[in-house]
Amino acid sequence: MELEKWFKLKKYPHIGLPITIKDYSWVKEYVENPIKIKKHSFLPLIHKSIVQRKFRADTSIVSKNPSGKRIRKKGIPKVRDIYFSSHLDSIIFSKYNEILCDAYEKYILNKDFNNSIVAYRKIPLTPGSEKNSCNIDFAKTSFEFIKDKSTKKLTVIIADVTSFFDNLNHKILKKQWTKVLKKTTLPDDHYNLFKTLTNIKYLESEQLFEAYDNTMWVQTGIPNSSTEKVFKRKDIKKSIFFKEKNAVAYCDKEEFIKNNLNLIISKNNERGIPQGSPISATLANIYMLEFDELVFNKISSINGFYQRYSDDLIIICEQDYEDEIIKYLRDKIDSVTDLKIEPSKTKVFRFEELSGKYTGFQIDENTKAINLNKTLEYLGFSL
């Protein structure tokens, strides 16, 4: 039996025992029934803060390593707030992510900016290819545009949207969600997902662990059987041992409802959707639809280049348009999406012939002061 692509089993512990392959039939019937999804009660998300460190080229050191690449250093740690759905809820989000992905792809199929939106999509490496493009290819496309225009003085703008997922305006999200489905209002089943994602209810993972640390559910094997598994209660001393102990659930749904509803935290803001949900990335692309089209058309009108990878944007244009495009970008991100460009992460580079060589260098956006030691970096790659 071939399983649906959205039927993705999760291994992280949550409330209630995990979904298994044995549950496929009833889960499929459930998630494909809009009436049931309309009435579905989503469990609280589980929140974890994950610290990430990015390694960036050390522009303070001019010399390079033996492979010819710049020496890299640890960047400033970035804390990401990740929210985990219960196992059934996650499958529901995966199913509706498939629906929305399909609707989004159909919506932009014949749009000129189709290939400029590159994150969270399957974009063939070449027309008809079974292999999809990745960050290397997206960066390469940008860099090749610069090289192909090496007879011109170019400006490259690298911009980052401030706290992207945390700042999505719910009214705009609902409008764009409805638009991509080609409806006048959100269908009831979709609206239930929208409410869940915009009125976030969550639990702190460590608080939930403290409530059930000595009665966690774990998966264990049966003696004399290499395939059969059973679930049983186990005392786990620290959450870092979850993987080692095969922890699969904090508690049953019934005991959580009976004993621990007081742990639920409500986050009823007018902005933001949770990172970590199977549907969040697609919703982010849908949210940016109008902005992407406007900016692409503007940049194309001056024979430039536009690409967006999630909250990272790159714009390439001739230097004569530099100030106009920077202003246009900031104006449209504000007026169309109600978001902001992160000032500290906005970088402006120029490419032009210096001493007989086509050279890239960073400039100060305001003073236009030149820094020859800083080179263009996009999606982790340098030019």
The proportion of strand residues reads 15-25%
Write down the Rg: 24 Å
Q: Sketch the topology as an H/E string, one letter per element.
A: EHHEEEEHHEHHEHEEHEHEHHEEHEEEEE
Task: Report low-confidence residues grouped into runs of 5 or more.
Answer: none
**SS content category:** alpha+beta
Count of helix runs: 12
Strand order of the largest sheet: 12-13-6-14-15-16
**Main beta sheet:** 6 strands, antiparallel
Overall geometric form: elongated
How would you classify the quaternary structure? single chain
Strand segment tally: 18
Features:
single chain, 383 residues, alpha+beta, six-stranded antiparallel sheet, 12 helices, RT_dom
Describe this structure in words.
- Helices cover 33% and strands 23% of the residues.
- It is α+β, with helices and mostly antiparallel strands and 383 residues long.
- Strand 14 (347-354) and strand 15 form a beta hairpin.
- The protein has helices spanning 24-31, 34-39, 87-108, 135-148, 170-180, 188-198, 205-212, 242-245, 253-259, 280-287, 289-301, 322-335; strands at residues 14-15, 45-52, 55-57, 72-74, 78-84, 154-160, 200-204, 216-221, 229-234, 247-251, 265-267, 305-309, 312-318, 347-354, 357-363, 370-371, 377-378, 381-382.
- The chain is built from twelve helices and 18 strands.
- The protein is elongated.
- Helix 5 packs across helix 10 (280-287).
- InterPro entries: DNA/RNA_pol_sf (IPR043502), RT_dom (IPR000477).
- This is Reverse transcriptase domain-containing protein.
- Residues 89-383 form the Reverse transcriptase domain.
